[in-house]
């Protein structure tokens, strides 16, 4: 009986703590969502908390009504997918050879990778390099400079090293090449790590803003984040008004910012549940014996 009471108490405390953590995580997002759906007066008076006041969709109408915004959204989706695929291909093909102790110069390569984590050329040399390669105003300026993240590369190397070497040796005895072993054995066992790093790469590219601000000046190539930035800046510099009969409706910059944040966040929130099963597999992978 004491054990049951202790377990119930433990479960109750855990549930309460998880609810508190959930509220703390959701409250800022709900606040932003409420601002994006509220009318001007309660926003200006500070009456909006986690629930909308005087429901108003005008901010979303302004964000989504622009054809250029839809084009930027589609461009960002395609850019994120292409970026994630290329980054994972390069990261995998760089990580697997670096797990081989017989690779000549392996330590030198690892030192060079770690060195780039702490030191870089800086923004100006990087811009000059991109410009000299004629990548300005192309999507490749948003892909090639960030193609391999050294931290993610080290994570994948560590994960590959955790796979039993006996599996690779067995494959080699059966006549499998290194490429065949990577495709048939290593990658299927590494799906949790690959899914996790893919999500990291995708989120970094989706939220990326500064590089597009530096390298993209053609409005037709604006990714979503840069387009939203331009819209917010315009809303702060000019009075955005539209006539509805004799009534003037003004869109507050705070409402437009909130709507922009929600629009930019939703695609990642939609993708995450699809990848969640791989995170669960990664947690359970080490618990299977035999």
TrEMBL record:
<feature type="transmembrane region" description="Helical">
    <location>
        <begin position="69"/>
        <end position="96"/>
    </location>
</feature>
<keyword id="KW-1003">Cell membrane</keyword>
<keyword id="KW-1133">Transmembrane helix</keyword>
<comment type="similarity">
    <text>Belongs to the binding-protein-dependent transport system permease family.</text>
</comment>
<dbReference type="InterPro" id="IPR035906">
    <property type="entry name" value="MetI-like_sf"/>
</dbReference>
<feature type="transmembrane region" description="Helical">
    <location>
        <begin position="258"/>
        <end position="275"/>
    </location>
</feature>
<feature type="transmembrane region" description="Helical">
    <location>
        <begin position="108"/>
        <end position="130"/>
    </location>
</feature>
<feature type="domain" description="ABC transmembrane type-1">
    <location>
        <begin position="73"/>
        <end position="274"/>
    </location>
</feature>
<keyword id="KW-0813">Transport</keyword>
<feature type="transmembrane region" description="Helical">
    <location>
        <begin position="181"/>
        <end position="203"/>
    </location>
</feature>
<feature type="transmembrane region" description="Helical">
    <location>
        <begin position="142"/>
        <end position="160"/>
    </location>
</feature>
<protein>
    <submittedName>
        <fullName>Carbohydrate ABC transporter permease</fullName>
    </submittedName>
</protein>
<dbReference type="InterPro" id="IPR000515">
    <property type="entry name" value="MetI-like"/>
</dbReference>
<keyword id="KW-0472">Membrane</keyword>
<keyword id="KW-0812">Transmembrane</keyword>
<dbReference type="Pfam" id="PF00528">
    <property type="entry name" value="BPD_transp_1"/>
</dbReference>
